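Rotation project, supervised by the postdoc (A.L.). Task for the rotation student: set up a whole-complex structure prediction and record inputs and outputs verbatim in this book. Inputs entered:
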Amino acid sequence: EIVLTQSPGTLSLSPGERATLSCRASQSVNSNYLTWYQQKPGQAPRLLIYGASSRATGIPDRFGGSGSGTDFTLTISRLEPEDFAVYYCQQYGSSFTWTFGQGTKVEIK
Amino acid sequence: QLQLQESGPGLVKPSETLSLTCSVSGGSISSNSHYWGWIRQPPGKGLEWIGTIYYSGSTYHTPSLKSRVTISVDTSKNQFSLRLSSVTAADTAVYYCATPGDTITAAVRAFHIWGQGTMVTVSS
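Outputs recorded:
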């Protein structure tokens, strides 16, 4: 079973700053199956990035995804007030199973 | 626009079976490009994938819960269900149902459409 480890656990930044979130897999992941979600308190997760780097419909271009193999990154180029939330990476593996990372909280500094 | 809505008891006693239903509106559960999943989130914690059922009827579950999980589809009611047996306090969580919602998202095995979630507490 592939384990996804996200870092840091919490990222304290100010609006306008750049956020860089990491998702590291215990084994190589097919980048087609690497996804990022955003979750705000009391809400369901929201699809941000699929296929490691493709933005979902309606997602602003300040959100970007990159990476391959075992290392993936979600970048928010300039944080807006509505971007402060928890972010999760997710992968789909060869055993027809899904795995989520433990999440990174982006909080206002 | 596809929408999902979870329903079921908010309180389940230890050792009993948790049963939830996800009602699908705005589209057919019989679509052959879709799969239907259950994900949960314990209070203050992260997301955990529980299991998924494909249009073919094949089901897959997280290894840690596999022996306790049953996922099924009722096409006549346009809904799918989760049953989790022998629950303990560790099964207390918000339970979400989710689906890709379109062929591109389905191809990359992501979840684009989510229900609002339903809180289930396991307590006597």
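Student's summary: The longest strand of chain A covers residues 63-76.
Supervisor addendum: The two ends of chain A are 36 Å apart (CA to CA).
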